[in-house]
Specification:
nucleus, Mediator_Med27, about 300 residues
Length: about 300
């Protein structure tokens, strides 16, 4: 009997270790996808090197998954249903307040299971039904009819996106634009604005979804903030401007307006504030730009 229990414990430890290895390698896959093309891939054939690296990681994950399945198959099924452990003693409390804890705990488990099930169903529904906005006409003089809805530009062929992005850099001599696609057709572009900063911008079709501003010496991770406060402030203003310039009816015009506004930061460390005529306020340059006039302001002076 004791030898059987020892074997069961060894099998359980082997299964837990295989799950631990699987989680570690899955994390490496997500890190590789989020980082995209890196400098250590080199310049020649870096896309092929990145694809081979990702294939190797996925093959490792597939092998780890088989090991987990084999380890789980070696486990001895439990003789009966699982209990809640020591929480079952909560129902034996003599205090009225503690007696209610067991029922609340069971309800919380049920509620969590329902939330998980509903989340899976909601994800399937959103995946199968793409979100499209429509535009209603406010002109009541044309037979009270609605205008034809304008399609939002979130689903655009990759070649159109590529052509549009390549055209951005030609408008400004001091703005360098590079693009990559770490996950599917939607690009993530990096804009180097002179020697001031770089902006990493995630697109959904021809719609800007997220912007991160960093120094030229920092990494190109979209989801990590800059270690410098001035660039974190500029990132906040860039994401606010993304909402200001957004329009579902003319995405190309809104992006051009946004890029013109972003280009005004070429004078981030040289232009004085329009409000106080100072270059520094609380050791910070004027990090905000007017959406119309493109004039520089401190956050406190706008």
């Amino acid at each position: 009997m004791e030898q059987r229990e020892v074997r069961d414990i060894d099998a359980l430890n082997a299964a837990l270790n295989s799950v631990k290895v699987l989680r570690s390698n899955v994390r490496r896959v997500f890190e590789s996808v989020s980082n995209g093309l890196r400098s250590d891939h080199g310049e020649d054939g870096k896309e092929n090197k990145y694809i081979l690296e990702l294939q190797e990681l996925l093959t490792t994950v597939n092998n780890n998954l088989r090991e987990v399945e084999g380890s789980v198959a070696n486990l001895t099924p439990p003789p009966g249903p699982f209990t809640l452990g020591n929480t079952t003693y909560l129902s034996q409390e003599t205090t009225l307040e503690r007696q209610q804890l067991y029922g609340q705990l069971v309800n919380n488990y049920k509620w969590t299971d329902k939330i998980r099930a509903y989340s899976v169903l909601a994800g399937d529904i959103f995946e199968s039904n793409k979100f499209v906005k429509t535009h209603k006409s406010t002109n009541l003089l044309v037979n009270q009819k609605r205008r034809k809805p304008h399609a939002i530009h979130h689903n655009v062929p990759p070649e159109i996106i590529e052509t549009f992005i390549n055209g951005i850099g030609r408008f400004y001599n001091d703005m360098t634009v590079t693009a990559n696609r770490p996950a599917g057709p939607n690009p993530v572009i990096q804009i180097s604005l002179g020697r001031v900063f770089k902006a990493i911008i995630a697109f959904k079709g021809l719609i800007i979804e997220f912007v991160t501003v960093k120094s030229l010496s920092e990494n190109n991770d979209l989801w990590s903030e800059s270690r410098y406060k001035v660039f974190r402030k500029v990132s906040d203003h860039c994401n606010a401007a993304m909402c200001h310039f957004f329009t579902p009816y003319s995405a190309d015009t809104s992006i051009k307006s946004y890029m013109e506004w972003l280009h005004s930061y070429i004078t981030l460390f040289s232009a004085p504030c329009k409000g106080c005529s100072k270059r520094l306020n609380s050791n910070m340059p004027p990090t905000w730009r007017n959406f119309t006039t493109l004039e520089a302001y401190h956050e406190e002076c706008k």
